[in-house]
Recover the amino acids of this structure.
């Protein structure tokens, strides 16, 4: 019997197929009228067994498999894996390769954040803003194709350096493009920061306090939006040690703060790109690898979505014994589930997208 | 407020950002990885490309002298093009168009030509028996016995890829 004062509860499945989601995740929502009271996530719709596949192929072929964990941050996955193996086999990577890795890494961060900004605009129904963001992103994709040969899965990392070099003309072009991107962004960031339609959908929505973010292990812009100044680039992998930058963070902890962190990071990436191009040394970009991996190593890099961790164990042969990947979205799902209760059902798309979910990363 | 008005008006007087595909095609970039076009007659069927292919898309049959690639398996990583000792695999810069049926790109070598050209026959006096040629040989056809100072090649196994000749630090392998 229903108590007359008690609001009846209903269960609504969100996903795995939903217009706002590019990838399948299922969240079971318990609603009281339109208010979410409980959210139960379920993953496992795009599991491809890529970790297992790396145990069957040699370590050089595994780079191409691991790159395909995620289309958007493919370079970072390869970077994390290659850096881990280089540390394990004690290989000195040439300085130029380290700078090339920074350049491609920051290009990837820029295109990932622009893609996210577009999807975020789409989540609250601002279609033309979505197109504007993706219009800027096209410039980055063109650079990636010109430098590496492919638009998204660029496959330029290898153990011991990079597979391709960037010539000086192209570097100048990249530098010019960074200014163009900053100019184009100046029009868009005003909309995200000040426009009334955006503010009512994002400000005060999905507040995650600093303490909760820390306890739930939020990483990347989700954590930084809540005031955790945690950026793995400060651990000085690749050539980040030679570059001058500070982790960007906001203290509000709502969707607006997470969006602000990403837009500010876009500007930061352009500055890092220019710094890396100016300081780039001449010389070799790859060394020959003769060692075999033996032992275990943990490697971490800062992906556009947050911290990515690789655990690699080798047994002295070309084929690795185990590769384990912990991706940023996996770490951010508990934070998302914590944020959802108390919000209206219509806020759900904005909230889900504010952590920048990458489900294919999560499930591998 | 109304910050988006300016970009909207700018867009009204600009030409479209998108192209009218397939009427206007996108210009390809130099060295872009479009798709594997095929292989030319310099191929010695050494099988290095098949060994290195991360997607196992290439199949090389040494006896029948056939080289086949499954374009639907290929991930266009460019590894085969980079590792081919005879530089005979060609990569096209334009993307592949969709197909209605699954098809393979294959190459049939001349089976009448019994032995490929460029097989090493022996080494000169400069040989220091370092064993680099034996290590690099994709078919493990070369045996180097350092203590006894002997160098031998199994001509049945050898495919004449020429890797040993190019890798020899003393440039002493004869063919």
């Amino acid at each position: 019997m229903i108590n007359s004062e008690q609001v009846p509860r209903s269960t609504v499945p969100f996903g795995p197929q939903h217009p706002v989601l590019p990838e399948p995740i299922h969240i079971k929502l318990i609603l009281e009228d339109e208010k979410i009271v409980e959210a139960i996530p379920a993953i496992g719709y795009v599991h491809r067994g890529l970790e297992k596949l790396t145990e069957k192929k040699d370590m050089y072929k595994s780079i191409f498999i691991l790159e395909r964990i995620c289309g958007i941050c493919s370079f970072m996955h390869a970077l994390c894996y290659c850096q881990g193996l280089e540390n394990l086999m004690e290989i000195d990577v040439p300085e130029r390769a380290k700078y090339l890795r920074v350049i491609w890494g920051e290009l990837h961060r820029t295109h990932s954040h622009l893609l996210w900004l577009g999807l975020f605009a789409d989540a609250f129904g601002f279609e033309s803003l979505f197109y504007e963001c993706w219009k800027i992103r096209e410039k980055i994709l063109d650079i990636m194709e010109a430098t590496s040969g492919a638009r998204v899965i660029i496959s330029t990392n290898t153990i011991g350096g990079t597979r391709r070099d960037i010539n000086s003309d192209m570097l100048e072009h990249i530098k010019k493009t960074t200014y163009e991107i900053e100019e184009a962004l100046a029009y868009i960031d005003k909309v995200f920061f000040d426009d009334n339609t955006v503010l009512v959908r994002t400000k005060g929505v999905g507040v995650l306090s600093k303490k909760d973010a820390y306890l739930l292990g939020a990483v990347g812009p989700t954590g930084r939006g809540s005031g955790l100044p945690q950026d793995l680039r400060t651990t000085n992998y690749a050539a980040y040690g030679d570059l001058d930058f500070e982790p960007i963070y906001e203290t509000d902890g709502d969707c607006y703060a997470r969006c602000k962190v990403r837009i500010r990071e876009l500007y930061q990436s352009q500055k890092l790109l220019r710094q890396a191009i100016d300081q780039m040394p001449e010389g070799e970009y790859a060394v020959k690898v003769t060692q075999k991996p033996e032992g275990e190593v943990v490697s971490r890099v800062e992906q556009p979505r947050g911290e990515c961790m690789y655990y690699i164990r080798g047994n002295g042969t070309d084929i690795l014994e185990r590769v384990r990947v912990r991706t940023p979205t996996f770490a951010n799902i508990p934070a998302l589930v914590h944020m959802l209760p108390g919000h209206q059902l219509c806020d759900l798309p904005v909230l889900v997208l504010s952590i920048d979910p990458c489900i294919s990363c999560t499930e591998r | 407020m109304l910050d988006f008005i300016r970009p909207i008006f700018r867009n009204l007087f600009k030409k479209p950002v998108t192209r009218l595909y397939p009427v206007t095609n996108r210009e390809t970039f130099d060295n872009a990885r479009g798709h594997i076009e095929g292989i030319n007659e310099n191929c010695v069927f050494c099988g290095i490309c098949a060994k290195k292919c991360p997607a196992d898309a290439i199949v090389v049959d040494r006896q029948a002298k056939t080289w086949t690639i499954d374009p639907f398996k290929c991930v266009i990583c460019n590894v085969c093009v980079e590792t081919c000792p005879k530089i005979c695999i060609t990569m096209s810069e334009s993307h592949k168009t969709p197909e209605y049926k699954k098809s393979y790109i294959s190459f049939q070598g001349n089976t009448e030509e019994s032995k490929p050209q460029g097989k090493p026959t022996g080494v000169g006096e400069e040989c220091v028996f370092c064993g680099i040629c034996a290590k690099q040989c994709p078919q493990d056809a070369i045996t180097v016995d350092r203590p006894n100072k002997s160098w031998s090649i199994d001509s049945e196994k050898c495919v004449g890829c020429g890797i040993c000749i190019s890798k020899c630090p003393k440039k002493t392998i004869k063919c």
